[in-house]
Amino acid sequence: MDEPGQSWGRETMTIPELLDFRDQNHVFADMEGGTGTDVHYIHDDQTTQWSVTRGTANSYQFLGVKPLLGRLITPEDTKPGAPPVFMMTYQVWKNQFNGDPNILGKTFNLSGTFYTLIAIMPPRFRPGWTDIFTAFPMDRSEIVKDPTLKEAYVWPLGYLKPGVTIAQAAADLDIVAHRLAKVYPNDFPKQFRVSARSFQDRVTPMFTSVLYPLLGAVLLLFLIACTNVANLLLTRATARDREIAVRASLGASRWRLIHQLLVESFVLAGAGCAAGCALAYFGIKELVPLIPHNNFPQESVIAINWIVLGVAMGLAFTATMLCGLYPALRVVARPLQPRLVCSGLGTGAGLQHGGLRAALVVAEVALSLVLLAGAGLLLRSFFGMTHVNLGYDPRNILPVHLELPPGRYEKREQRKLFFDELLAKVRTLPGVLDATAVLWPEPGGSQTLVSIPGQADSKTPQTRWNLVGKYFFQIFNFGLLHGRTFSGEDLAGRRNVIVVNEAFARKFFSKDDTLGQRSTFPSMTNSRPRPRPPHSLAASLPNLLQKPTSRLWV
Questions:
Q1: Could you give the CA distance from residue 437 to residue 419 in angstroms, rounded to a whole number?
Q2: What is the pLDDT of residue 335?
Q3: Please, which residues bridge with residue 483 across strands?
Q4: What string of DSSP letters covers 282-347?
Q5: Within a domain: 409
Q6: Is 4 within a domain?
Q7: Looking at 203, 236, 269, which one is the last position of a domain?
Q8: Which 8-state DSSP code applies to residue 79?
Q9: Torsion, CA 6, CA 10, CA 16, CA 17, rounded to 10
């Protein structure tokens, strides 16, 4: 849902909203939703943190993915009195349980609740880099009883009916949303519109900007290789032109000559393709494990695509055999006597093939220049990205995630006491200079609307915000231009104050003195937690504190 003039909007909805959209729309055959969180797997006096996707009861049948072992979660598993069940990803099954099929049906202690494992999912099913999957009921009475479900936000997904377009779906959902805005006034702005896009368009745009240049580079490299091979074969044919003429004069038929060169080209192309396939196989096997975690979708399988490989091999065979057959076709179509009486070996053929070889050299150099220019620009961009000034030094700043166990630290005072004691102990660890707690791990935070009293609303009244601890600015070593940072009284909630950067001041206050100005953030005030809010601190602190004089950003 987007507001007019805004480049961003709300992609999530509450579970009651999801059920209303599911019941009132006319474009979807079904709808499902899911949210992410973390759980603690407690075993043998040890605790392992797993990320969990918690979907609606129909989610996994909706997606239509068949498990590798066991069965999918069904709506019957979420009915009152049914034992809790969960499904495990293939990666966790292999890495933490050595692919043991006997764990199916066993009970696991997940954050104090015992769940039964009913399925191992296939290798390519790992949306959101999750570890396990559970489900919650779609019964409104059950949702009302559970405050975590009533307040939770989920990512909606709908299955279009046959013949329905994306535009038609957006129009229908817009009508439903404006109807629901009267039921949930706090969750909808005064003016908004609903947009829809396919799941593929939601997932792939972040990779198309990388894949298309890579595809172009591969095609250029392929053309360079083809022209290079063609030039080498024509050069070789120049030296063999008199040999072929002699064979023809001794009685070799046209088909015999073509057959000989066809076999030679076939052997050459086959050897090259075999070497290329072997290099691709071992290259993928060795390079894929080197890709940093979370830099590529975990459900994606980087492997040799046999269709693409077949097309590439077909093109390589065609290019090689055409270049190999060209001399034979030239010989059988021209008189043999000039080739037999010439004093220099291949002299006449060299003149005949010279123009084509020169054209191939020109094409190869031109393609190489284009490829080298593109590679140089990419290297320059990569260097610029790795040396961009972030405003702070990211080295030795270690973000750590902490998921508080359910049922504990429910009150604000309990959470404050827990973090105060935890941060105090972390600061005493060897090599740690300081530690703080933040809501969002990245300094950019989350987006929110901005309203300045006494000023007309900007065309883009939005900024990014974060909730930070007292030592946040010291850890990141941000320079202070004017004013002060947060004090103990500010953090205790006695004052509503903010610290802004220079870009915020220029955008909303022009040349006026920013200190003492007032601003409100309506979307932040009325917002509720989104799926997977980043908390602080993780369980394996000693594993992270290996470097001396490290700052721990909790």
A1: 8
A2: 67
A3: none
A4: HHHHHHGGGSPTTSS-TT------HHHHHHHHHHHHHHHHHHHHHHHHHHHHS-SHHHHH-SSTTH
A5: yes
A6: no
A7: 203
A8: S
A9: 40
**Mean pLDDT per 10-residue segment, the chain (554 residues):** 56 87 91 87 85 89 89 91 93 92 93 92 84 90 79 86 90 90 81 83 73 82 81 74 77 79 82 88 84 65 82 81 70 64 51 69 85 85 79 80 73 84 89 84 71 66 80 81 80 77 80 75 53 32 31 36
How many C-beta atoms lie closer than 10 Å to residue 118's C-beta? 20
User: How far, in Å, CA of 31 to CA of 230, rounded?
Assistant: 56
Cα-Cα-Cα-Cα torsion 470, 473, 479, 481, nearest 10 degrees, comes to: -40
Task: Kindly state whether residues 247 and 344 are assigned to the same domain.
Answer: yes
Q: Is 494 among the domain residues?
A: yes
Reduce the DSSP state of residue 464 to 3 states and report it. strand
User: Are 158 and 282 found together in one domain?
Assistant: no
Residue that has been written with the tokens 């005030």 in this structure: 525
Q: How, if at all, do strands 46-56 and 107-110 pair?
A: unpaired
Q: Are residues 501 and 442 in the same domain?
A: yes
The one-letter code for the residue type at 62 is: F
Q: How far apart are CA 55 and CA 199, in angstroms?
A: 17
Residues 410 and 545 grouped into a single domain: yes
Q: Which residues contact 216 (CB under 8 A, 6 or more apart)?
A: 374
272 shares a domain with 165:
no
Output the six-digit token pair for 468.
């930070």
CA trace torsion 201, 202, 207, 213 (10° rounding):
30
Closest CA to 30 of 72, 9, 60, 69: 60
Q: How many folded domains does the chain comprise?
A: 3
Q: Which of 203, 225, 244 is the last residue of a domain?
A: 203
Pairing of strands 153-160, 397-399: unpaired
Asked whether residue 266 is assigned to any structural domain, the reply reads: yes
The pLDDT value given to residue 456: 63
**Residue 245 sits in the same domain as residue 136:** no
Quickly list H helices, 398-470: 412-427
- The pTM of this model reads 0.66
Same domain, 356 and 404: no
Q: Residue 410: which domain range?
A: 397-553
Amino acid (1-letter code) at residue 136: F
